[in-house]
Amino acid sequence: MLFNIKNPVVCASIIIGNQMIGCGLGVIEDETVGLFDIYINENFRRMSYGTLICRSIIEESKRYHVKRAYLQVASVNENAKRLYKSMGFEKDYTYWYRVKESS
After folding, report:
1. Global pTM?
2. Do residues 27 and 33 lie in contact, with contact meaning Cβ atoms separated by under 8 Å?
3. Distance of CA 42 to CAs 20, 39, 68, 84, 95, Å?
4. How far apart are CA 78 and CA 100, in angstroms?
5. Which of 22, 24, 54, 86 could form a cystine bridge with 40, CB 3.0-4.6 A?
6. Biggest alpha carbon–alpha carbon distance for the chain
7. What is the three-class DSSP state of 32?
8. What confidence category does residue 97 fall into, taking pLDDT thresholds of 50, 70 and 90?
9. For position 19, what pLDDT does the model report?
């Protein structure tokens, strides 16, 4: 799926020792970057690495004249919601996934 992205992409990762402890992806469209797949290893959460990943992606995106950023977060992911709120992100809207069960 990632190979099908046609827009510019910015990636960031954090490696400590020989272990990648966090990573994230930014996809640029027009003057906006979407932050996707922000992940920090459980043992390294709440140490500002998530903020560092997001800020790195946003900063690098400015080379593409990006002026805005957005992301999606599951409503039950309280830790991520606190992180993004601390970075200045605000809730814009809510949506639902729907699944049809097979018979």
Report:
1. 0.85
2. yes
3. 12, 9, 28, 17, 27
4. 27
5. 22
6. 50
7. strand
8. confident
9. 96
Listed in order, strand segments (DSSP E) in 1-103 are 9-16, 19-29, 32-40, 68-71
- Give exposure, 56-78, as e/b (b: 16+ Cβ within 10 Å): bbbebbeebebeebebebeeeee
Q: For residue 15, what are its two tokens?
A: 């490696």
Q: Return the pLDDT at 1.
A: 64
pLDDT for 96: 82
Which comes out higher in pLDDT, residue 66 or 96? 66
Amino acid at 81: K
Residues in Cβ contact with 92 at an 8 Å cutoff, skipping those fewer than 6 apart: 70
**Residue 2's pLDDT is what?**
62
Beta strands 68-71 and 32-40 are parallel
